[in-house]
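request received
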Amino acid sequence: KKRVMAEHHYKLTYFDIRGLGEVSRFILVIGGAKWEDNRLPIQFQAAGPPIAPEFGALKAAGTFPFGQLPVLEFDGHMIAQSKAIERYLARTFGLYGSNTVEAAKIDSFSEGVTDLRVEFMKAQFWAKPEDKAALFAAFLETHLPKHLGLLERNTVSGPLNIGDVQFSQFWEALTLAGAVTASSLDAYPNIKARVELFNSNENIVKYIATRKPTDK
Amino acid sequence: NSNSNNNKKHVMADKQYKLTYFDGRGLAETSRFLLAIGGAKWEDNRLPISFGEGGAYIRPEFDALKASGVLPFGQVPVLEFEGNIIAQSKAIERYLARTFGLYGANDVEAAKIDAFSEGVADLRVEYNKATYWAKAEEKEALLATFLETHLPKHLALLDKNAVSGALSVGDVQFAAFLEALVLGGKVTADVVDKYANLKARVELFNTNENVVKHIAARKQTVF
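response:
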């Protein structure tokens, strides 16, 4: 089934940033898929919404099921919603464990990563500008260690899974933003091992080496 | 093929599931609905909870369970079966949906159902921002904005992305969320009337025999 899947051509459309598209890019890469990385230009401003005219035109034409990116196209289908895309690709490329119970445990870890992302969003994107500095400090001092402790107890061993990819991408984003360093994971050996499994995946190494750097 | 699915459902229905959550609908009712729809043999393990001064929780059985370290994320709901314990409400929901055939007929359909499901999650986040996560003094204004702006916007998107066919996990998640808004007095059930696809999915849920029985027998709770 994996070999048949690898013959499909996938087109992932997202902005020209890592953002909510990078986990899907990672999974496509890990899976050895034939895929097109369709990146739409976007400019962020200090004040006001981001500028993305190509996206705006497509959105106005009703192209996207939820009016948002990313979307994944293949075989005449278009799937929206980043996590629906991630779960579809994970299932297709064997990153969901070997049975339904294992899949549930991986999903549980995945939801734990989502909980951590939501805390991060509350402190950064959803916060009022005047609250951000204090909220982000509280995130780093309190929420992050608490959630890392919970994720540490819930890692699923075995081959690389979707939860590992989601966590590793989130951790990469925090690292590139200068919020954490590699040694911030030292107290969490299970998580650290899963991130190392991700980092040492041959396809990931190649992809990251040639990936264009972006701020987000 | 449909035979083997039926055999699978029969085997699954013999399993004993135990769902543990507070004595309320909250984040567990979707899973309770799924277990009911699937015709499972299951135990509805409800932990007492009441609210004290300044909104403090009084829930000693939960506190003891949490202190014992048995809850994988220190939270409920958890689903137990065959020596396994699964935490995280959405992981439980997706497991039950897969087990009882509420995830479409193939992986692509499952992805479309999942997209709808994520749309429901987005709507829940907007609601949470206006309620649970909001500062007390801002709640009234935020809820008004939610009802006037965010809710219609999201209902229109969900209407566009409803997946036809058999009852799916997305339908159950949306129906449970809508029910919570209605029972909480925030909206009336006819709020979906303008959205024909969505209304049809809610009706499919409302007319499911096992859902009807579950709701009729269910004790009424504050949340």
